[in-house]
């Protein structure tokens, strides 16, 4: 019975080591800037001071594709698609090269 327990413990340690080295990633489209809400822009003023004009602000029409890679310790790489580019094999390989350099650091 004892050798079986030692074998299971060893396997458990091996699995944990494996999980420490796993890296996962995701891609998402995001606006370059998001406007603050009126509540976010409120500042305390003296009652006699003039009221500031608040303009209606819209989200940026420009979007960027962000690629994020992370492991058990946190974010490993945050990469963005250059403006006017589209994802192809060469660009994806460059991203993976940057990921490899980030992991080695």
TrEMBL record:
Chain residue ranges for the region called Disordered: 30-56
GO molecular function: nucleic acid binding
Protein name: Histone-lysine N-methyltransferase SETMAR
Signal peptide: none
InterPro entries for this protein: RNaseH_sf, Transposase-MT_Hybrid, Transposase_1
């Amino acid at each position: 019975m004892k050798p079986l327990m030692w074998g299971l413990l060893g396997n458990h340690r091996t699995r944990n080591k494996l999980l420490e080295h796993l890296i996962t990633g995701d891609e998402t489209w995001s606006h370059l800037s998001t406007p603050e809400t009126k509540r976010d822009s409120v500042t305390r003023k003296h009652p006699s001071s003039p009221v500031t004009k608040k303009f209606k602000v819209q989200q940026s029409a420009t979007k960027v594709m962000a690629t994020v890679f992370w492991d058990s310790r946190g974010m490993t790489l945050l990469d963005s698609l250059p403006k006017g580019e589209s994802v192809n094999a060469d660009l994806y390989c460059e991203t993976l090269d940057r990921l490899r350099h980030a992991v080695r650091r």
